[in-house]
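Before the break, one more example. Copy the sequence into your notebook; we will annotate it together after we see the structure.
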Amino acid sequence: MKISTKLLSLFLVALMFFSFIGNSSANEADKKLNELKAEVRARYGENKPITDGNYDKSLAVKCINGTFVGTKTGNVIAYKGIPFVGEQPTGKNRFKKPVPFGKNDGIYEAYHFAKGSLQPETYDDAGAFAVLGEDCLYLNVWKNAADVSENKPVMVWIHGGGFTQGSTINPLYDGFNFVKDNGDVILVTIAYRLGGLGFIHLSHLPDGKDYPDAQNLGIMDQVMALKWVHENIAGFGGDPNNVTIFGESAGGASVSLLPLIPEARGCFHRVIAQSGSPAFTHSTEEAIAVTNELLEALNCKTVADLLALPPEKIADVAGDLLSLRDWPERDGKLIPIDPYDAYLKGEAKDIDLLEGCTKDEMGQFAYFMGKEDFTEYYNSRYEKRFKTMTPEDVAKAKAFMDNTLGNKFRKVFKFGNQVLFIAHAFRMSENHTAAGGRTYHYYFRVETPRTYFLSGHAAELSVVFNNPQDTFFSGRAYDDTFNHTMQRMWVNFAKKGDPSLTAEESPTGKAIQWDMYNSETKPIMVFDEFNIHQGIEGDYGIVDWERTYPLTKYFIF
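Here is what the structure looks like once it is written out:
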């Protein structure tokens, strides 16, 4: 059975809102959905030039590409919708690498969130309800004015969404609460092109030679945003020599790839990868096959045909057809052919790394899709992948599932946890550590109240962003002390490369020591809601080193 992405997305949204309002009627669910859409859309606005000199000078920051004026609420100053490119990727710039920002002496509002990258509006991400457009390459900055310390560490968030959905306008990623409680850091969230407009191989087409970067435009957008941060963040009180990039899912994959990109080096110094790894990539052959499938669906044969289409058409068809397959390409030019090998060779050894996964990554997908459709879809996906593997590795995969207790759903669920997320995270830790890099590994086990979801993919996001009121993924607010403790560990890592907390730093009043990962004992930090503690991977049996860890060489399943 091939699941239609749009139909699935409609089901997801309906299911999500019924879970919010219990046994309420479909009309009430529609009302709640429309209220959320209206809330998200209201966050968008057009930032205009200020030409009359009428603005609050204390909220203005001079940058290379303009002076931007923010808004202040309490002690938090927000600067929203700042462009980080010289021209937006529209018209002649479609399918082209981002245009560098240049000198601009103008003064501009930074009052409103900008447009999100084009994506199907039916997706299960509140960011998709935003005003969308090709002109989407903007970022947002939050600072706490009550903390007047200089050269604050900077944390740059890259959102997830399978490289096909998501946006910085999502209320879950709003930085107000985070900076209000963690005033000793500057927070930045950045946008990038998605799906068929951000990750599509074109150079094999008859007129494709002029589009050599189309397969990795979204990653190139991220690099440009980091360059902007490096050159301008000092004006906001941030330290350009102490920048941490962090992200979840596709964002976790992005921050795992960026250390391997020469142009990005020097723009950041630490990485927090949540439930994402270099596994979320394609080979060139796979990328070309995906492009050809999209071209057929759009009835196009050339780049010129694609350029003649409305961008919304490309985004919608790509989102429906290629969901979870529109990824960056291991092209050997921007991204290494084998990112894991690059880590092992020490290409990122000077970067501090904190990474990990949730206990039940596949829970989000099982909850949204339903038990039967989830089982059928992912089992079919695995079987397709098995056809590309050696008989010995297929035997390992099937041995893992055969030895997993429970029904077929449970076997498919557990196998997905391993080959899509957990085993890949440990391969990152192993290779980075072997090359001499500093690595910290975590295991998040807090469960949501939803059937099948458990401690699923994205369950930790409301904690990290200090937005417990946003239960889109968590299903409930977690313990307040737990939330603040985990946040401070993320902040401490950003500040000094060590997430450990002293008794004075810890919201519990008790010191928490987090040992660096090593390949012998494999120490990890276990995040239980009322018991954050160190552990050893082997005591929890998190990864199957004999049967699923070797399968990471096949990247994504």
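The chain has 17 helices and 14 strands. Confidence is low (pLDDT under 50) at residues 1-23. Try to locate both features in your own notes.
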